[in-house]
Amino acid sequence: MRTVIFDLDGTLADTSADLLLAGNAAMEAMGHAPQLVLDRDAATALHGGKAMLRLSLERMGHDDLEAEIERGYPLLLEAYGNALDVHTVLYPGVTEALEELLEEGFAIGICTNKPEALADRLMSALGVRGLFGSLIGADTLPTRKPDIAPYRAAVEGAGGVMARSLLVGDTVTDRETARAAGVPSVLVSFGPLGMGVAELAPEALLHRYAEMPGLARELLA
Known about the structure:
By secondary structure, this protein is α/β, with parallel strands linked by helices. It has helices at about 15-30, 40-45, 50-60, 65-80, 95-105, 115-125, 150-155, 170-180, 210-220; strands spanning about 5, 15, 90, 105-110, 135, 165-170, 185-190, 205. Helix 1 (about 15-30) packs across helix 3 and helix 3 (about 50-60) packs across helix 4 (about 65-80).
């Protein structure tokens, strides 16, 4: 079965505002001033909680980065879990594209570096969890993207096979995952990196979700 696997943050949904607010909440819980700025730091948000904490602490000139990151990460996850869908929205056309893929016989799944439980809750809150045949998160397996094991699990969990699959994402992590797996990559041009993703030389760029079914047919012909 032809299978399309999607990243979540910055690919299916714009989650950056809720992530950044959680990062600032964690900093405040540690006794620091908030450092993250909405919009300006969106790209860092989509690299995960530890990346946001690292940037915040570097801006403060904090000396013991690693220890403070480890202290703050559980606080960030707690804050995010309490408000993960306040500002988050699916990108335009996502639901329609997913439904069209399913109607055409594609299997679809999610492979994200967001913790599985949070990803599952978010997709349910956004009303699309039931469309996906699989959801593999950062903590589902011992490894995460760009290791290919989570990607393989997402493909097989959705009922597909690696040889007839592709990965849709928004960062170098997704590009490297696809390269390691030997499958086509499609990178979105509407995420925080914009057209900068073209420098990663994916097999295709996705400018709007209405194009997704056609790209899947072409790349998995």
